[in-house]
Amino acid sequence: MNETEVIMKIEYLLRKYLPEREDLTELVRKDTDSIKYVMAQISRYKKKEYDNDDRDIIKEIAFYYI
Q1: How far is CA 58 from the centre of its chain?
Q2: I need a surface site. Which of 25, 34, 50, 56 has the fewest CB within 10 A?
């Protein structure tokens, strides 16, 4: 997974689980070192449980970036 792919996947997760936190999308675009922080924010403040497909995305991000 390259940097562009991870940014797209994080943006997808943010739109789905924390749509009001556009600031986190900008943070990831500026600095991919913030991925761990953003993933923690999604996990902590998500409005609903993760879908199975989204869990796979999260595992993939964690494998490559956390």
Answers
A1: 7
A2: 56
User: Cα–Cα distance between 25 and 49 in angstroms, integer?
Assistant: 20
Backbone φ, ψ for residue 53 (5° rounding)? -65, -35
Number of structural domains (the chain) is 1
Q: Which domain holds residue 57?
A: 3-65
User: Is the Cβ–Cβ distance between 9 and 32 less than 8 Å?
Assistant: no
pLDDT in tens, the chain (66 residues): 899 999 999 999 999 999 999 999 999 999 989 999 999 999 999 989 999 999 999 999 999 887
Tokens at 17, concatenated: 């689980």
